[in-house]
Amino acid sequence: MNQFTHYETLSVAGRDMRQNYQTLISCVVPRPIAFVTTLSPTGVVNLAPFSFFNGVSGHPPAVMFAPANDRHGREKDTLANLRQIGEFVVNIVPHAIADAMNETSFTYPRDVSELVVCGFTSLSSTQVRPPRVAESPVQLECRLMQIVDLGSGPLAGHVCIGEVLCFHIAAGFLTPDGAVDPAKLDAIARMGGDWYATTRDRFSMPRPTGPKSSNCGGSAIESSPQVPHRP
Q1: Measured between alpha carbons, how far is 129 from 41 in angstroms, rounded to an integer?
Q2: What is the residue extent of each domain of the chain?
Q3: What share of the chain is helix, strand, coil (3-state, %, to 5)?
Q4: How many CB atoms lie within 10 A of CB 50?
Q5: Could you tell me the CA-to-CA distances from 100 to 47, 133, 188, 204 in Å, in that order?
Q6: Which residues contact 13 (CB under 8 A, 6 or more apart)?
Q7: Confidence band, pLDDT 50/70/90 cuts, at residue 2
Q8: In Å, what is the CA distance from 81 to each residue of 42, 44, 176?
Q9: Which terminus of the chain, N or C, has fewer Cβ atoms within 10 Å?
């Protein structure tokens, strides 16, 4: 296998925090986008995208997303809402709404709903109070399980873990085996800087059915012989 012969080593301790952030988000790619709706105690719907997002458990089904503090160290409205009303909806972002999704990343006042000003349509949820986004073909209603605070100050992250209570899948998007058709979903993903990616180029690799017995990365991997049991 090809090996790289030279690396630049960047010590986190010796760099500006913004530089470390930019390097991190350009290394961990592509990142799925959680388009999250939350509700304030006064009833204002907040809608914001987060690319520190993934599924983290199958039983119970659970997801995580991690809002980061802004450059002044202030917590996002989404996080403030979750601390008070522990419910949220993750709306998956198809390519068709990429521009409108991006508009919601602007810092609006707390009493302004991004869902309204950016032209999205609200759908009532069935098990949580925050609404769903009708323009999203897949929505996950979630109940907050835990918030893990990873520091304080500018760019500090807060891992929000939620149990998925309900899936909403647009008609025709679900395959017979219970998966969402990736071609129909047409989800986008976050790269570094201002870059995004589509999920239109895909390839399939069946899982291995046994250990590999060949040269892999310069070292042979051999299966262990079966040793008969002796009393």
Answers
A1: 11
A2: 12-220
A3: 15, 35, 50
A4: 22
A5: 11, 12, 13, 31
A6: none
A7: confident
A8: 10, 10, 37
A9: C
CA distances from 116 to 14, 37, 131 (A): 43, 12, 12
DSSP secondary-structure letter at 129?
S
Q: How many residues does the chain have?
A: 231
- What are 28-67's pLDDT values in tens digits? 999 999 999 999 999 999 999 999 999 999 999 999 999 9
**How many angstroms separate the CA atoms of 16 and 68, rounded?**
16
Token pair of 108 as six digits = 């609006």
Sign of CA dihedral 115, 117, 118, 122: positive
HSE-CB at 59 with a 13 A cutoff on CA atoms is: 0
CA-to-CA distance for 90 and 139, rounded, in angstroms?
6
The CATH code that applies to domain 12-220 is 2.30.110.10
Taking residue 140's Cβ as centre, other Cβ atoms within 10 Å add up to 26
Q: Tell the residue number behind the tokens 């390519």, with chain if given.
A: 95
- Take residue 132 and report the two structure tokens written for it: 């769903």
